[in-house]
Write a structure and sequence with these properties.
The protein is mainly alpha-helical and 102 residues long. The protein has helices at 2-10, 20-37, 54-63, 74-90. It has one domain.
C-alpha cells in the first residue's frame, strides 16, 4: 500500500527546485508536527520565530538536506515563519484553523 501511495503522489511532484510556496507549506506542516509531537496545547502559528528557538532549529535540521543553505538557514527560516505568522493573523477568520484545545 505504501508503494502505491508513493507512486500516486510522485506523479504530482514537479522537477527542479521547489517553489517558495512549497517551502511555506513544508514549514507550516513542520509546525503542525512540532506542536503534535511536543504535546503543546497551542496553535502552530503561536510558535516562536526566533532563529534560536527550538522550532526553528527543528525545521532547520529537517529541511537542511533538501534545500540550498541560503534558503533554509536559521535566519531565513525565522524570517519566513514571521511572515507566515503575520499573514495568518491578517487572514479573514473564515480561513483560519481552529485553535488547539486547552
Amino acid at each position: 500500500m505504501a508503494l502505491e501511495l508513493a507512486c500516486y503522489h510522485h506523479s504530482y511532484v514537479r522537477k527542479g527546485q521547489p517553489t517558495k510556496h512549497q517551502q511555506d507549506t513544508l514549514l507550516i506542516g513542520l509546525g503542525d508536527l512540532y506542536v503534535e509531537f511536543a504535546q503543546l496545547h497551542c496553535d502552530p502559528y503561536e510558535l516562536p520565530h526566533s532563529k534560536y528557538s527550538l522550532f526553528i532549529s527543528f525545521a532547520y535540521e529537517a529541511l537542511q538536506p533538501f534545500f540550498a543553505r541560503t534558503e533554509v538557514s536559521r535566519t531565513a527560516l525565522s524570517h519566513r515563519w514571521l511572515r507566515l505568522k503575520d499573514a495568518y493573523r491578517t487572514a479573514p477568520k473564515t480561513t483560519r484553523f481552529r485553535r488547539c484545545p486547552d
